[in-house]
Design goal:
Blueprint lengths: L1 E7 L14 E2 L2 E2 L1 H11 L4 E8 L2 H8 L4 E4 L11 H16 L5 E4 L9 H13 L4 E7 L5 E4 L2 E4 L14 E11 L13 E5 L11 H11 L3 E6 L8 H12 L4 E7 L3 H9 L4 E4 L2 H11 L3 E5 L5 H8 L4 E5 L11 E4 L12 E3 L8 H5 L11 E5 L8 H12 L7 E6 L17 E5 L4 H5 L4 E4 L4 H8 L3 E5 L2 H4 L10 E6 L5 H13 L1 H12 L4 H12 L3
Parallel strand pairs: 1-4, 1-6, 4-5, 7-11, 12-13, 12-15, 13-14, 15-16, 16-17, 17-18, 19-20, 19-22, 20-21, 22-23, 23-24
Antiparallel strand pairs: 2-3, 6-10, 7-10, 8-9
Helix pairs in contact: 11-15, 13-16
Length: about 550
Amino acid sequence: MKILIIIPARGGSKRIPRKNVRIMNGKPLILYSVENALALAKDHDVDLVVSTDDEEVESIVKNRGVEVIQRDKTLAADRVTLDPVIYDAVIRKEAERGERYDIVITMQATSPTLKTETLKAAVDAFEAGKDDTMISCVNKPHLSWRMEDGVIVKNYEKRLNSQELPGNYLETGAFLITRRDCVTEASRIGKKITVFETDATEAVDIDTEEDWISAESILKRKKILLRCVGQQKLGMGHVYRCLTIAYKLIGHDLLFVTDAESIMGIEKIRESFFPVEIVKNDKEFEEVLDRCKPDIVINDVLNTEEEFIKTERKYAGRIVNFEDMGPGAWHADAVINALYENRPNKPANVYEGPDYYFIRDEFLEEEPKEFSEECRNIMIMFGGADPSDLTGKLYEICKVLHPKMKDVEFHFLTGFAYQYKDAIRDDPDHNIFVHHDAKRVSAYMKHADLCVTSQGRTVFELASMGVPAIVLAQNEREAEHVFAGMGNGFINLGIGSETDAITIIRTIQYLVEVPKVRQEMRDLQLSREFVKGQERVIKLILDER
């Protein structure tokens, strides 16, 4: 079928002056519609014209090889509708070529977020169907009201949740496809009408400054792939960090990818309502990369190999790794190692230390409790998985401690993936209370006078809340995290599985009995500033430094 696409674009615009030629995310607004129309012409028999009264619009589109129809001034007035403008362009083009078109498509210059594939799908559906007119719409069912004879009346029969309401289709202005026979000076709408539903992100029709801001934000969206692991052996910290980052990247197109063994991680990601793909090997991961072609890949999988990063580089524009000390780190654009500092011979792309810790929002919202000389609340937490079962070790230690500190409560926070949770239960006789998979850990930290914890990311959270802590590393790699030392308000007892119970008991007793030391530890912790860490990390991910 022979198609004529008309883009009406006059020069006058009162709400947003010079709207059609203003730069939107790097190029004149009108070019988004022009480029979509030109892309359609690769697969269909298309003529494209821009109807305008404006010299600047004409110059911009002619530079792209697009034909311009000079619109008469009578058709460029504020109150003139599009119908006579489109009819004028149709009859002039048909007179020029000496035959009629089959389909006429109106594409407004004010729909920059429309995707080319959406336009192609709509045209294909229209050509295959028997409707006279197809209108681009977004479905927005809402409870609504109208004015009727001076009285506000409802537009619905029964109050329902929005997902239960009937369709309410709003025109987006992106395109109107119609049979040539339906085009007159007064109308472009035939008798048999259908709609082509678009995603809300493609439905922005720029009429106000708010629309402009919204469209520019959508166009700046990046495809971001977060590759992470969440297993019993490796713990859940990688998944939790990626989720925390993802919440701050809302507005971008996010996809989690993890391996089939990360059963606990998959469950947590799905529980957080982010899309996730599961891969069995690097070949399947490459297939995901090829299909998605992300702008940014975030790797939170510990050490990477050189070939792994080079494979990602074929498909992604930017690669950011976390806690990577492998050979692949040299080939990433940025490596963020908040838990490591002052490593020799580190690559120039590595950003180390607590200034790059991405703290969760809840720890920025909660206020540390007032210091108490009496230690009445001791918290024990070893992360989401606690692969070394240090929780079980402390559970028995607290039973031993109870007769010596009867007024102290021991609060255990076990993680989402902790596998021995059935064995760790409330024991009121020993003042032991267990909280499994707490949704807001900061609320528990706010009441703690002392904590026993592992040497991972939790130490930063405890420091932000001013909770003195005894640290037991899960493994040798975790023991390399240098932040958890006395200079930052922590007593580090080394690898937990190698630390005997007597040492742990005596250290806890010492801190309970000597409040001055706890006070000094707290002061060191609260001297740290974590609020800027989020901002630094997001800028590194998005390359906005």
